[in-house]
Structure formats: structure tokens, C-alpha cells
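Changelog note: in this version the structure field was regenerated for every chain. One regenerated record is shown below for reference.
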Amino acid sequence: MAKLTIGSCLVGIVVTLLWTSASTAQRVTEFKAPALGAVFTFRISDKGKYVGTSEYAVLPDQNPFDGRSAYRIRERYTKAAGKKQYITIRVFDKEHGNAVAFFGSNGKIRARFRPHVGTLNWPMFVGKSWTHTYTSERERRKSKIGPYTHSVAAYETITVPAGSFRAFRIVSTKNATSRTTWFAPKLGILVKQSERKNGRTTFSLVLIKAIISTASGGAN
């Protein structure tokens, strides 16, 4: 009987250790921005139809924005026909990696998001959930966005055209709209996102190419 009790205890300890190890592996304490000079290319679809590509290039400009640490990404959007391109500069906060503003190609600010869009919230782990509302300011127009309920559904390997990555699957809901984001902590950027409304896919993007400079490190 004593052997059975000891054996049961050992099994219990092993199971606990394995569960603790798995939980630790699925927990990322803080956000790490994407590497300076990295370039990510996404394929964009609208209602299931290919509409164009967006190239995200991490810029060396690391100056603060509105008093907070920030990094910037130049987005070059090319329409499917390949004839028109649109360039914007997107600003993200370094604390969470959420968008806080974007500028047009003329250098003028087109929108601010206060405090930020809120899709990411660190530390990140499976089972975490939060609610977030933010204000979108565009020229003379202000609008409240939300509340969105965000939850971390899984930490899993996802395969996209650019490769296979470990990513948090974050589900964001607001009324009849649901958005799923796969965010890869080691890249510091999402690798896939899809949005559904009333049960139908309305928008999706997927990472098709990633060029990362190993020498530059993160944008910290």
C-alpha cells in the first residue's frame, strides 16, 4: 500500500511539473518589437477575393510619440492590379505593440488611437481575457470604438506561406463581429488575421514573406 501511495505521489508530481512547464512555455511576459529593417509582406483578401498586398518595413525612427516609447512601420499597399500604391507610416507603442497612430505619405497625421487599439495585452498567456475601448481621432471627427472583448484562445503552431510560427491565437468580439489574430511573439508581429461578421468572412490577411535582419535585433 505504501508503494502505491508513493507511486501515486510521484505520478502527481510529474503531472504537475509537466503542466507547469507547459503553462510557462505558453506565457510570454513582455512584448518585443520587430527587428529594425525587417520587412513583412501580407496578402489581403476582402470577402474571399484577393485585393492586394501590404509590405510592412520596420523603420529606424524610434522617437517617442505623444510622450510614449514608439516604433514605426512603413506600409506600402499595392492593389491587385499592381498599378496603384499607397504609403502610410504606422506608429505602434513599444509597451504592447498596439497601433497608436498613422500618417499619410505627405507626412501629415491621419488618425490617432487613444490610448491604443488594444488587441495585444502583456503578459500574454492562454486563457487571458480583457475588454478594451479606444477613441479614434481622424481630422475633425472623433469616434469611440468598442468595447471589444479579447481572449487568448491558444498558443499554437500556425503555417502560412512565409513559414511555420508559434503564435497566440487571439479572438476579439464586438456584437456580430469576430476577429481572430495569430500573433507570433518571436517576430513581434501578427502572421494571420481574419474577420467575420454575421458568420461570413469579410476580411483576411496572411503573411506570405518575411525578411529579418538577425544583426539588428528588436526595435527596443
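Spot check on this record: The chain has two domains: 1-30, 31-211. The CA atoms of residues 64 and 70 lie 5 Å apart.
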